[in-house]
Amino acid sequence: MKISSKANEFCLLKHKQALKLPAMDYKIIDQQADLDAFCEQLKTCPWIALDTEFVRTDTYFSILSLIQIQTHDGQAAIIDPLAIEDLTALWSIISNPNIRKVFHSARQDIEVLYQVSGQMPTSIYDTQIACLFLQHGDLAGLARVVKAELNFTLEKDQTRTNWRQRPLTCKQLEYAINDVRYLAPLYEKLQTELTEQQQTALEEDFQALLNEDLYKIDVKSAGKKIKATKKLSRKNKAIAYKLAEWREQFAIEHNKPKRWVMSDEVLVAIAKRPPKTPEALYKVPHIKASSVKNYGAEWVALIDEVFESPDDWPKPTVSSAPATPQDEVLISIGFALIQQIAIDYNVNPNNIANKSDLLKMIQSSSFTLVGWRGLLLGKPFTQFLQNQMLLSCKQGKLVQETFTPNAY
């Protein structure tokens, strides 16, 4: 069922009345010809604000349900991908390197667009990351940033909407379009307030988000994404990896959430105490009896395969050279710098760097951090280690000062 044009007209009227703002018209595109015409207009845009709504409650793959776009000159549209058979024209826009695509918290949007189209977006800008330089931290939601920077309250009462349903209500459509309506001016503000140095650093972060390996499905590496497997022995880790590979493949083939078959908790519990019989699986806490009945014998067979192939178990992680007592002194200074950055930019210090990162910078001049982390921590800490940066205390705050070494 498509979103009707009459409903669209009614929603536009209510939208204007509710917000009391001019020029809030937007199109609802659910016809092939309209999409093709709109995309033809987009070809000349230097940038577009873009957002998606998708559903992934009972499937492995996300179901792309809406695509919202606002152009640099204020044209806005909600595209209904469930009603349009051929989205080729849209994919051409999203993969066009001459058109900047502006997202807020881009990774999930990129993932669903990549899964549906098979193409990677190009030339992106993520305002969530960029807003770090406005002291909002690196994980600030759009509503919080829009309130602080644009003094507008984005309603968030439609976050649990089933975006597959049709027709969508006026309020749901308003919620969807507002995400790009206010993303556009936020992007423009960032262009004027951030320095060239900050923008250059951000490009490294954006480029990292476009690493296709982040979004490719690799069933053989599924187990590595489970944090609890990192502390397992080689044998137990091999079992966990084998079960995770089976689970991933099953979920893909049946397009069902992985947790419906086996949760991470259950998977790791089986790997820690591998059963010898299917019946023994029933003793695993929180395991689904139906899953044991249907797949238990297959799981035990996989575990037996692991026992028979010790040469295939994951190799031990090669540790870097341990920190010396002098390294520990420098690491402490690095952590002090991290804490000051965290305070200055409202960032969780754990999201900046860890001890391993600091030790690598201390032990190897070739190792560096990239993006905003490189600008705020990597560059000054490396300069400090090379006697090119002075760290001092001013008004109770740790500050960085460039100095000429031979002047001391």
Question: How are the elements arranged and paired?
Answer:
Blueprint: H1 5-19, E1 27-29, H2 32-42, E2 47-55, E3 63-71, E4 76-79, H3 88-94, E5 100-103, H4 106-117, E6 124-126, H5 127-130, H6 142-150, H7 170-181, H8 183-193, H9 196-209, H10 234-254, H11 258-261, H12 264-272, H13 289-307, H14 325-345, H15 355-363, H16 371-385, E7 389-394, E8 397-402
Parallel strand pairs: 1-4, 2-5, 5-6
Antiparallel strand pairs: 2-3, 3-4, 7-8
Helix pairs in contact: 1-7, 6-8, 9-16, 10-12, 10-13, 14-15, 14-16
Task: Give a quick summary of the entry.
With 408 residues, this protein is an alpha/beta fold.
Q: Shape from CA axes?
A: flat
Low-confidence stretches: 4-10, 12-23
Order of helices and strands: HEHEEEHEHEHHHHHHHHHHHHEE
The largest β sheet comes out as:
6 strands, mixed
Range of strand content = 5-15%
Q: Multimeric state of these chains?
A: single chain
Q: Biggest sheet: strands side by side, in what order?
A: 1-4-3-2-5-6
Tell me, rounded to a whole number, the average pLDDT: 92
Tally of discrete structural domains: 3
**What is the helical fraction, as a range of percent?**
40-55%
Query: Gap between N and C termini, in Å?
Result: 75 Å
Considering the protein shown, what is the CATH homologous superfamily of the largest domain?
Answer: Ribonuclease H-like superfamily/Ribonuclease H
Continuous helix count: 16
CATH topology tier name of the largest domain: Nucleotidyltransferase, domain 5
At the first level of CATH, the class of the largest domain is: Alpha Beta
The rounded Rg comes to 26 Å
How many strands appear in the DSSP assignment?
A: 8
